[in-house]
Amino acid sequence: MAILSVREKLAILSDAAKYDASCASSGSAKRDSLKSGGIGSTEGSGICHSYAPDGRCISLLKILLTNFCIYDCSYCINRSSSNVRRARFSVEEVVRLTMDFYRRNYIEGLFLSSGVIRSPDETMGEMVEVARRLRIEEKFGGYIHLKTIPEASAELIETAGLYADRLSINVELPTDEGVKRLAPEKKPETIRLSMAKLRRKIEEKAEPTLKSRKRERFAPGGQSTQMIVGADKTSDDGILHASARLYGSYHLRRVYYSAFSPIPDSSSALPLQKPPLMREHRLYQADWLMRFYGFSQPEILAGSNDGMLDLAIDPKLAWALRNRGRFPIDVNRAEREALLRVPGLGTKVIDRIIATRRHRRLRLEDVGRICHSVAKVRPFIIAEGWSPGALTDKAALRETITRSCEQLSLF
């Protein structure tokens, strides 16, 4: 096999890493290299492939240690039977890349995952060594996220938590049946046991010690997980049920959904799900409703005929249209929990509404100024001088809202 340059390895292993989610760094400990004398900083607002609240584009080096893998999971492009081009970084190469990219201001952190080569412990050991060298030898204070291997030893996972801001363990698929069928070499019970051990360790380290009265540093960003959606026939209702169970059992920071989109490959036996990215988007919106809007998992799709989220409209609007008897809601009197159910009102908008109504009663145009658009809100609220009347029960309400919310073409 031809010897690859670092540049060639980077092209292969950064492309292979695009299928890994769980990149956000929210919840990590704040560190300032100006105070510590090292290099690199991270803030609690986080690093991800997105834009920060102040508009900055924040990125991290997102790579695999290797895309060689001993497992043959049907949904994974890097499975052992796949004919993709293979590469492998050394520990030293990953450390040097991270530091060189940081010094050039290309990145603010590292997201490191890997295929499993030879054994889980050997692969995990190299990933931990990357994090150790960055923290101890390079004095790197930026964000580090390690995608851990559930079959690796507890000692290695514990060591990883000393250096990483966040650890994640993939549950792979929504159901045990799906894992056993599509990833038969992986055991759902092993994955759950590893997640439970990691949760206990995070909770244990969160308690101040008797000696120092301080909390020990251990994966301050908590743990997250990734779930492949669309590789099996699990409904959206089933996926959200699995997510709710994971949040409750392991106190996860996030469940990340990764839409299954098989690349044309003669060895791929799974069908293409359409449209996978919109389904992924709707699942994230539904997940948000469970985490921040007080929705229980069963009620999000209660009344749905097929247990699938509507791809044409967001899940809160779909829920409101199925539950019109709970509307309209008076924005000048309703509790926060009731306002959270109104389509088009986000948590920050609701906080501003509550703060404003302490001083004066809100009219419809006031709500419009706060949330920038009342097209989706108007049929579901009462305001000073405004009542939707029969609009809430209008048969064609869905079509009216979707038409008024369509973006104007830029071309």
Task: Give a structural overview.
- There is one protein chain.
- The protein is an alpha/beta fold.
- The chain has two domains: 6-236, TIM Barrel, CATH 3.20.20; 315-405, no CATH class.
- 38% of the residues lie in helices and 9% in strands.
- The strands form three sheets. A six-stranded parallel β-sheet has the order 3-4-5-6-7-8. A two-stranded antiparallel sheet has the order 1-2.
- Helix 4 packs parallel to helix 5 and helix 8 (236-250) crosses helix 9.
- The longest helix has 19 residues, at 188-206.
- The protein is globular and about 70 Å long.
- Residues 43-48 and 50-56 have low confidence and may be disordered.
